# Entry
Amino acid sequence: MPLHKLEHFDPNYRETFGGDDFKALELYTEGGERVGSVADVLVDNDGRFRYLIIDTSLNFVSKKILLPIGLSRIDYSTKRVYVDGLSKQQVENLPDHKEDALVDNDYEEKVRSVFRSPISGMTYDRDTYDYQKEPALYGLNEQNHQTFRLYEERLIANKQRLKIGEVTVGKHIETETASVTVPIQKERVLIERVVPTEAGKVVDPNELKFQEGEVARIEVYEETPEIHKEAFVREEVRVKKVVEQDTVEVKDTIRREELDVDTVGNLHLQENETITDEAI
# Structure
């Protein structure tokens, strides 16, 4: 599993851990002897602490080494990291950790082999190895690192899109009787009988011209309305949806656990600031 420096994994790790900077911690044995300081921290892909990069100064031997996190006890109140049994021989046998060193499976196994107990019975297989197999190296001492978790409930707001109905917009045809007024002209024949101006005048018989079958023809016309229909756009109807924003307040009862501390005897109890140690 690839390992990362803490600041590369979480650039804001100081805020994550309540302002604490692990690089400022000094390394001491359980007997109180200073053996170095923490130069950096290596974490896995899940953010769990796997190694402390220690700048050692033990018996005039100075170099950087990797220390499996399970061998340490971090005391945030004193800003110290305690490790028991780190000997000069172990420091000498550990590879000198360089800034550009590739910490692969084989490199880690060299480190583990120095700290691993000869009676552990551990057989290393790089394809199946898991940190959980060696809690002595990577597990936290439960007596010195007890975790008591307080839980609380919180309301999580999600949204669900539900169909509440639908609108169907269509067309249908309605019929009605319409009327239009059209002025037309009609011709008619008017026959008038009038008294001639020369009424009573004797006509010379030689001038009389009686003709049978004489006919006067007059063409008579009238206008008739011609009606046709034209279609035109009366109006346009646009159908669209608009989204309206609204805020809905939902209330429910949530629970939260609070810490009750009972002490027996005359004890000095110090409560530190909240420190996020999920990654440890």
Summary: The beta strands are 4-5, 26-28, 34-43, 49-58, 61-68, 72-75, 80-83. The two ends are 16 Å apart (CA to CA). The domain at 1-177+236-280 is CATH 3.90.50.10 (Photosynthetic Reaction Center; Chain H, domain 2). The chain has one domain: 1-177+236-280.
